[in-house]
Amino acid sequence: MFRRRSAALFAAGLTAVLAGSVTGAGAAAGGDVLAMAGVADGYASVSALGINGTTGGVAGPTVTVTTSQQLAQYAGANTPYTILVSGRIQVSGLVRVVANKSIIGVGATAEIAGGGLVLGSTTRPGNNVIIRNITFRGASDDSISVHNGAHHVWIDHNDFYPAYDGSVDVKHQSTYVTVSWNRFHGTDKSMLLGHSDTYTADIGYLKVTYHHNLFDGSNQRHPRVRFGDPVHVYNNYYRGVGLYGVASTENAGVLVEANYFEDTAHACHSASGYDDSGPGRLVQRGNAFVRSGTCETNGAVGEPSSYYSYRADSATSVPSLVTAGAGVGRI
After folding, report:
1. Domain locations along the chain
2. Which residues form the Pectate lyase domain (predicted)?
3. How far is CA 320 from the centre of its chain?
4. Which position among 132, 221, 224, 281 bears the catalytic label?
């Protein structure tokens, strides 16, 4: 029923794009764009809801943007685009991203500052979106908000600095999302999954994979989960985390697997709930706890491997792998 889109098929599609028009303030060489595009894994790779994995803007032309106006123009267009972000772009509020877009930073200096990206609206879905290799800094709301039923989203190899609200929030019936190989630098509300305790419309959605992210001095929500099941949190590096690592609440089901918790007093909440939220289910296996509390567990959780194939690295290898590989400039 489910299968991953092969790297060969994705590469063939992007090569066809590169043979077409390339416009904007400049363009990367074809091989560079191909390398930056990558192939999604985790839930973003699943074939479901009429989409054969997450391929972003592969079906459209490639453009390079250097201003907020250009970014908003192509991100909000009703046709596919691979959008290369060059340099620092100062934005105000949230730039709306609609279906079939790849937004990829050029080199190690691409930055979206002062605002963020919001996927979709009630009338224009933000499905099949890739966001890679961009630094997000000082957003006036969320850095990235995945909502309004967006599905098949891959957020990979980005750097997140503190925002007014969340860094990566997924809510309002969004699903089939992968958040991978990102760095979170001193963020507070890092990653919310599920809008609120009363928004029960999220039940049956919120299938998200979080893997190989570095939480460096961040505070909470890595992630905080309501209703999602099964949510997969594996091979992440929690270093000097403040309030807690993972919270499973409101009957969510979260598998916490082969992560490395270092100097993190409260690794996981579940059976006792968190704040005003009721308890959730959480299974932990193969994690490492160094000068850290262990994971509070509760109940049973479905296996993400019934949706996609993966191989978890050993928890002890996570610090070196993630420190070397996560964030911008590493794709």
Report:
1. 58-325
2. 58-267
3. 21
4. 221
The pLDDT of residue 13 is 39
User: In angstroms, rounded to a whole number, what is the distance separating the alpha carbons of residues 241 and 216?
Assistant: 7
pLDDT at residue 88, rounded to an integer = 98
Output the pLDDT for position 32.
Answer: 62
Examine the residue annotation and report whether 291 is marked as an active-site residue of this protein.
Answer: no
Structure tokens at 167: 């860094």
Amino acid at 104: I
From residue 228, alpha-carbon distances to 61, 101, 182, 269 in Å are 35, 25, 21, 15
Per-residue pLDDT reduced to its tens digit, 189-236: 999 999 999 999 999 999 999 999 999 999 999 999 999 999 999 999
Tell me which fold the domain 58-325 belongs to: Pectate Lyase C-like (2.160.20)
Which strands, in side-by-side order, build the sheet including 81-85?
Answer: 22-24, 62-65, 81-85, 101-105, 129-132, 151-156, 175-180, 208-211, 231-234, 253-257, 281-285
Kindly give the parts of the chain with pLDDT less than 70.
1-36
The helix-helix angle for 30-37 and 7-18 (nearest 10°) equals 140
**DSSP per residue over 38-59, as a string?**
----GGGG-EETTEES--TTTT
pLDDT in tens, 151-183: 999 999 999 999 999 999 999 999 999 999 999
123 burial level (CB within 10 Å; 0-12, 13-18, 19+): exposed
